[in-house]
Write a structure and sequence with these properties.
The chain has 293 residues and is of the alpha/beta class. The chain has a single domain, classed as TIM Barrel. 37% of the residues lie in helices and 12% in strands. It contains ten helices and nine strands. It has a seven-stranded parallel β-sheet with strand order 1-2-4-6-7-8-9. Helix 1 packs across helix 10 and helix 8 crosses helix 10. The longest helix is centred in the last third of the chain and has 32 residues. The chain starts with 6 loop residues before the first helix and ends in a 21-residue tail after the last helix.
Length: 293
């Protein structure tokens, strides 16, 4: 919606600074097109929802197997399973702003023209047992995205998740839910002593936000909207034949610039906090008032 090349340009920008990326199942690009220009060293993950047929409510098992195999073949590094979306949040603005020509090529099956996102719903019958079901399909790491409580974090460890992604879905699923940064400390405490990594997204706008998340125990920090703002950089120009190449280049460059700004801000914040390296970042850098960070 914000750039002609979509996630292809996004991935180029991410790769230019050696960062990681999770490709949405709703991407407007095929994953093979996204991975084609990238080095195999770039950590690219496939985000996954488990779907069911909208009419019969039967789980689309073959599709889940299909997309996981595609991810493996394309050299992706892991599966990011969204676990906080048994149903869609009530998003009143989306029918207004999502153009009908936006397609989701990843939500398809070979030789089945009727398999389409419009015919699918999220599978609300998912349980913790489905982590083992997914594990039976792949040796790729399985990262659970949408964990906000210590109880769920402990269960994720028990069920063999490879990592936990603390996220509140940008506040778009359930209004009033905890901010990711507020939920982070109890999740980190819950998995302490295990080898499971904890990631975070939500509300990251400055390098100081990254510093706070790392101090509170996040192993990695992901962003959404800022990367999209970078992707949209300069696309406001009228796209003519002469400008098209410039616009395509600027999309990836905008993502690069956003990530470089965050990296520079983080580096400065670390220096001003007395941290010579990431290993020096500790929780005592952050004071947690009762109402949050």
């Amino acid at each position: 919606m914000v750039h002609p090349e979509g996630d292809v340009a996004m991935a180029k920008g991410v790769a230019s600074v050696g960062s990681a990326m999770a490709l949405s199942i709703y991407s407007s690009n095929d994953l093979e097109d996204v991975t084609a220009p990238l080095s195999s060293e770039i950590p690219l993950f496939q985000q996954l929802n488990v779907f069911c047929d909208r009419q019969t409510l039967e789980r689309t098992v073959e599709y889940t197997k299909h997309i996981i195999k595609r991810a493996e073949k394309a050299g992706l590094k892991g599966i990011v399973l969204t676990v906080d979306q048994p149903v869609r949040g009530r998003r009143l603005a989306e029918p207004i702003f999502i153009p009908p020509y936006i397609k989701c090529p990843l939500i398809s099956l070979p030789n089945d023209p009727h398999f389409h996102s419009k015919n699918l719903s999220f599978d609300a019958s998912m349980t913790w047992d489905d982590i083992e079901w997914l594990r039976s399909m792949t040796s790729l790491p399985i990262i659970l995205k949408g964990i906000l409580t210590a109880e769920d974090a402990k269960e994720a460890v028990r069920r063999g998740a490879s990592a936990i992604w603390v996220s509140n879905h940008g506040g778009r699923q359930l209004d009033g839910v905890s901010a990711s940064i507020d939920a982070l400390p109890e999740v980190v405490d819950a998995v302490r002593g295990s080898d499971i990594e904890v990631y975070l997204d939500g509300g990251i706008r400055q390098g100081t936000d990254v510093l706070k998340a790392l101090a509170l125990g996040a192993r990695a920090v992901f962003i959404g909207r800022p990367a999209l703002w970078g992707l949209a950089y300069d696309v406001g120009l009228t796209i003519t034949l002469s400008l098209c190449k410039h616009v395509l280049e600027q999309g990836a460059a905008g993502v690069t610039q956003v990530l470089e700004i965050l990296r520079d801000e983080l580096s400065r914040a670390m220096a001003l906090s007395g941290c010579a390296s990431v290993a020096d970042i500790t929780s005592d850098l952050v004071k947690m008032p009762s109402h949050g960070v």
